[in-house]
Known about the structure:
Blueprint: H1 4-11, E1 16-20, E2 26-29, H2 31-37, H3 42-48, H4 63-77, E3 81-88, E4 94-106, E5 109-118, H5 119-142, E6 146-150, E7 156-159, H6 162-167, H7 172-177, H8 193-207, E8 209-217, E9 223-235, E10 238-247, H9 248-266, H10 276-293, E11 297-304, H11 307-314, H12 316-333, E12 338-344, E13 347-353, H13 357-373, E14 376-378, E15 381-383, E16 387-393, H14 401-417, E17 423-425, H15 426-429
Parallel strand pairs: 16-17
Antiparallel strand pairs: 1-2, 1-5, 3-4, 4-5, 6-7, 6-10, 8-9, 9-10, 11-13, 11-16, 12-13, 14-15
Helix pairs in contact: 2-3, 11-12, 12-13
Amino acid sequence: MISESVLNMINTMPYAGLLRNSRYKCVHANEEMAELFGFNNVGEFVESCDELSPVYQPDGIPSRNKLQMFLQDVMGTGKTMKYDWHYFRRDKELLHADVTLVRVEVDEKWYLLEFIQDINESKRARITEREANQRLQAMMDSCPVVCGLVDIHFNLLEINNEVGNLFGVFNKQYFIDRFFELSPEYQPDGQLSRRKALDKLKQTFEAGRVNYEWLHKNARGDEIPCAVTLVRIRLCEQDRAIMYIRDLREVKKSIAQIEKMQSIAYTDELTGLFNRRYFMDNANEILTKCKIEKLPFHIIMVDLDYFKSVNDTYGHLIGDEVLKITAKRMGGVTHRNNLIARFGGEEFIIMLSDMSYESALQNAWRIQKTMEESSFTISDLSLDVTTSVGIATLTDTSDSLDNIIHLADMALYAAKRTGRNKVMEYEQAKDMKF
Length: 434
């Protein structure tokens, strides 16, 4: 009587398998075995099992003698044996098979488990696996960043040649064998490197893709901040993950270059303030928001009085220093909700939002007073420079930015025509005749 546990062991195996008792008689087989040999059910296969081999094997040894020798050897020694064997299927078609013979003990009894796999199927599986591996390797080798393959335990199985460029290793196997040695014990976020890697891998198998930052070290011990992407794949019936490693130093360098270019495009080179282009783009966006949310919006125009005389008397280098100091002083006395730019020549523009008109007007007066009361000390020179200031505010939701700037400029013009060194509101200036 075969125990239920033994029968379950055979029936749940994913391969064609049969069970022999201690007298080498076939006592059970699974459905895969019956299907492999073309029988309708397991019972038919078990009855015919010993008749499915040809009289002789390809080496000339009688099948019965050779099988008996193998069975006795495995039962006596307990060693697993693998060998090639020729069978006949039920329809007499020749079956060339791989056989694995294993001794097992269940319920204090010895049995022999015999696994049989069609060699042609095995070859096809190996060819399919090899082709899949070749395609994967070609994909990895063509990747412009470090690309590797990891298993479910985060063992690195393969890596492309880019690893040499990033980590300074000339042997890929060196990196594969020392993956975690080329990382600090702890990541910058305080997590153990190995623990973090396994957590990210688990998330990958659940979500399909995970991105995270990782600190590596190269062969010299230099730290390399990296961005890692893990992507779940199914390869040869096993869960795997493709790992992409990008050098964040290069990314940050590119970002810095982009930011530098943007800074050049939007910054006035002399004063360090925003330029006219940046001001117009951003002030327009803020004006639109203020109209929608019914918030205040104000424009202040500032112009240096008699600046041409400074340039003519002391030269443009001194004039440039005056413009730099003016920019710094205006930034120090205006409200934080502002946008300051050099609008052209000696003219500056300030946008203020989310504050009352009275507060904006106070900002305008602070600028005028600061310039009037503080001398400009440049080299051995001490210059007194004043400003004329004009201010206008959003009064109608149909007003455009250009129109509000025009109104502030009219107020500035009125300040200059009426004596300079003062602040003029548009409401004061609009009825003036010049």
